[in-house]
Amino acid sequence: MTTTDQAGTRAADAQAPPRSRWAAVTAVALGTFLLVTAEQLPIGLLTAVGSALHVSEGTAGLMVTVPSLVAAVAAPLVPMLVGGMDRRLLLLGLMALMTLANIASALAPSFAVLVVSRVLVGVAIGGFWAVASGLAVRLVAPAHVARATAIIFGGVGAANVFGVPLGTLLGEFSGWRVAFATLSVLALAALLGLLAVLPPLAASQPVRPRLLAEQFRNPGVRVGILATFLIITGHFSAYTFVSPALQRLSGIDERLVGPLLFAFGLAGMIGNFAAGAALARDARRTVLVIALTLAAAMPLYLLLGRGPVGGAVLLIAWGLAFGGVSVGLQTWMIKSAPQAVEAASALWVAVFNLSIGLGALTGGVIVDSLALQAILWLGGACALAAALAVWSARGHEGLR
């Protein structure tokens, strides 16, 4: 182990709490659940919002694009701007911002006001996720970090499985404004929960531009950032168009797409916790298996997914593997930069959100100019390239 690794380990040990705070971990998980729900909720409300505020569905899509891009910028920027501020107060402030932003969305008299409220949502998402993603090392004993990280990121899977579908259903029956208002009430409940159980979290090392730049000299961080960019870009280039892929390539009835995507989300939650358990034993091998599974699952659609059964099985395998991506790559970043977890996490969250937008954009261009099959090849190729990058890091001691 190098001197830098030893110093990082000592820094991480110094931050380790005297006892594990699982109630705080659960409250942070609830926060991530609501943040991801807020980010993706408009996907199911585009038509209703567009009709009510007199804009096209394409324009209404800005409700999804804007917070993603803002979150990518806010992830490194918010920790830099707040300096040494107690992270407990920061998380409380960001959840309060989320509460107010969704009230503004519910009451928006025009689409312009609604977009501004979505900018605030993006700030809350980027800032909260950047801090929360590396918070496990501050809340639980070192032996439980992987499991606590899996619980925090379980909120992401739960949002995809329950949050967005239930919010969309509420919007269909009670109106889109009620859906946003309900999300605001839940965000307030999460704020009160964080206030009750989150301990003081003094900033161990304020995030500065120089500290962010220094992370790129860390080979483990570089590989983690590259793997994140490749896997997330490849996944969203293909997954954005999974509905037409299921219907055209696998011959699955349109009425079954929703239940299959629900199954994808459930498989993702299982994959999240399975990866959390495996990461505690060997982080590099776990991320490598995830990347290789994704590299196989997407292109195999063209060989084994030509029927409903094959398509459904491959979709669930895809969901199982992708469910471990967030917790796997975040754990990679924690282990690669134990002396600068928040800075490395901020970079990771920024790349993650940028890659979502880039993947969806790239997939759209490919589908329009080439063919639907091409995005599955791209997704598989990106995951394979990520696997090669992960394999190249086999000598990094901290990732064992």
Report on the architecture of this protein.
By secondary structure, the chain is mostly helical. It has two domains: 16-197, Growth Hormone, Chain: A (Up-down Bundle); 209-399, Growth Hormone, Chain: A, CATH 1.20.1250.20. Helices cover 80% and strands 0% of the residues. The chain contains 20 helices and no strands. It has helices at 3-15, 22-40, 46-53, 57-60, 62-82, 87-107, 111-132, 136-139, 145-174, 176-197, 209-214, 219-239, 242-248, 254-279, 283-297, 301-304, 308-322, 325-336, 341-369, 372-391. Helix 6 runs antiparallel to helix 10 (176-197), helix 9 packs antiparallel against helix 18 (325-336) and helix 15 packs antiparallel against helix 18. The radius of gyration is 20 Å and the shape is globular.
Summarize the topology.
Blueprint: H1 3-15, H2 22-40, H3 46-53, H4 57-60, H5 62-82, H6 87-107, H7 111-132, H8 136-139, H9 145-174, H10 176-197, H11 209-214, H12 219-239, H13 242-248, H14 254-279, H15 283-297, H16 301-304, H17 308-322, H18 325-336, H19 341-369, H20 372-391
